[in-house]
Structures are given as structure tokens and as C-alpha cells.
Amino acid sequence: MRRSVPSIAVLVIVTAALLASASTGFAADRYELVLGSGSYVPGEVHVARAEDSHLVIQFYEIPTDAEREELADAGIILLDYIPNYAWTAFVRGGAVQSLDLSIVRAVFALRASDKIARSAVDQRIVRAFVYDDVIDAEPVLSVYGQIIDRDRNSFTLMLD
After folding, report:
1. Average pLDDT of 123-139?
2. Residues 24 and 39 in one domain
3. Among 51, 52, 49, which Cα is nearest to 133's?
């Protein structure tokens, strides 16, 4: 079957328009964080802390092994991946200043609402996980309720 030149041109124009609109939508969602509590695109902020802390670092692209090693040497350990392009990280005090801003989109602390899965909202008993480097989690967790079980870095809480 032979198509006429005008119909092929229309097909090419429509395809180009669809691809352009799809790529525009993709660019807006490219850096959307996908969490158990919901999704959002974080602002391009760079929080610096003087003390050791856990932060989220979002990159423009997935860091290479060499970049990850450089981060570790600078005192930044990437822990858990968060879609898209983000990691929770243990950051030594002051290490944020050593980041190469050409590869880092944002550095920020998770909001309190980001730390609880939707399935845990309005539940009386929840499970909390803490990173291995957290030394004394009980005082912080006990503010929210009674610790009824612990298995290494996993705590079961009965909320107040």
C-alpha cells in the first residue's frame, strides 16, 4: 500500500508532536521522588549540616562507581536508593560543601511525613527501621509510643 506524501508528512508531524509532549512530561517527572508516603519533585536545595546526619542526595544522573568512591572518601555514604536519582545518605558534618554541584541536583532532609508509609497511617502498631550507624534510637522512638519488640535495627511500636 502506497501512502501519499501529504499523509506521510502529517504522520511525521503528529509523531514529532507526541514525542515532544511526552518528553516534556518526562522531564517534569524525571526527578520525582517515589516514597511509601507519596511522590513529589523536591526543590533544588542544598542543605548543609555541621553535624553528622542522614540526608537525601538527588543526582542529575545515577553516580558512577568512581563518583560513589569519591563521595565516600569525602564522608558521604550512599545508603538506600529512592526513585528517581536519589539516595538516603550518611553525611559527615560539613561534607556537603565538598559535593560537585554539577552532578548533584538537591541535598535535603526528608520531611516527617515522608518517613511513614501510607499503610501505617492510622495504625496502632507500626514497625520502625533505623540505620546501622544510629546508636541509641530508643529515646527518639519512645516519644511516639511504647517499644514492644526489637530485632537489631527494627522496632515494633505501639503508638500513643
Report:
1. 87
2. no
3. 52
